[in-house]
């Protein structure tokens, strides 16, 4: 039985009390919808004076592939008449602050996936800083963490060395917070200090995965089609910084990993011998239609999640990476790896078990630090 959950956007009377009749700006994407499937921008336009729309990576409709942006700069949105901007294109300038000076409140509503390197949370901090500079409040319409708040894993980013658009602050890979809780944490601990309000979910508890709720699933981006994919993404996204296909250009991104040079049977034998919990490795072949190795037969593995609560995709990635490093044809981009991992650990020899143990301790400390910013129990 599905659990009944309301997101921030579904709390209509509370939302109207906060923004009714005011001039608003909204950062959103296709996943910003109500339980009835109505876009957040349409709801805000009906109860406020929606002046500005901002789109993140993948665009307002979330139809563009990774690394693609709308590059819109003030074009009128046909459905609302609001001016539409690519928010990432405004990074490093004062233009976002100037634009927010035209409105009364800035609103954020995008479904996140709970992984540090997913870029929407970087746009969130960008919006919060600009709103602070403009003297305007920020309203975050909260949504569940689709991979639950009960599992924190991965290394904590070395903020002094590897802060970037794919990981800005010293948080673990899988940071076990909703986007509203994350906003509360960075606002206080990272000295943003904006006037922040989070309109929390109702009916959601930290142990719930998104597909255990009655909410509509809309792909947060083109290559995150399922909750299990979002879980695998915690580990598989690292392979973006290699010449291994992470399944982009197939029907199962981040669930399939491989390359033409991989021995899929040897890979599966190595991985299954480890006895890692919650996952079964199946040898397979696939042919991406775009992205890395497009049109070529890739050999590799499918990650079958058998127990979400015991499976640890980050630790799984550490072990699998060691296998891939055996191939002379395997290539990696050390800089890109460090940005995603948050630390420089995989370019030389390493012990996956020791790194995983270190990550557990780092996550324990992080969870202690963020406890006071949690909204759900």
CATH class of the largest domain: Alpha Beta
What is the rounded Rg? 21 Å
Q: What's the CATH H-level homologous superfamily of the largest domain?
A: Uncharacterised protein PF07075, DUF1343
Count of helical stretches: 11
Largest sheet: 7 strands, mixed
Overall geometry: globular
Number of strand segments: 10
> What percent of residues adopt helix (DSSP H or I)?
25-40%
Describe it.
- This protein has 377 residues and is an alpha/beta fold.
- The chain folds into 2 domains: 8-218 and 368-373, Uncharacterised protein PF07075, DUF1343 (Rossmann fold, 3-Layer(aba) Sandwich), CATH 3.40.50.12170; 227-343, Aspartate Aminotransferase, domain 1 (Alpha-Beta Complex), CATH 3.90.1150.
- 29% of the residues lie in helices and 14% in strands.
- The protein contains 11 helices and 10 strands.
- It has helices at residues 12-19, 40-47, 95-100, 120-134, 159-162, 179-189, 227-236, 264-273, 313-324, 334-341, 352-370; strands at 23-28, 49-55, 73-76, 83-86, 105-109, 138-141, 196-199, 256-259, 279-286, 298-305.
- The strands form 2 sheets. Strands 3-4-2-1-5-6-7 form a 7-stranded mixed beta sheet, with helices on both faces. A 3-stranded antiparallel beta sheet has the order 8-10-9.
- Helix 7 crosses helix 9.
- The longest helix has 19 residues, at 352-370.
- The protein starts with 11 loop residues before the first helix and ends in a 7-residue tail after the last helix.
- The model has no long low-confidence stretch (mean pLDDT 97).
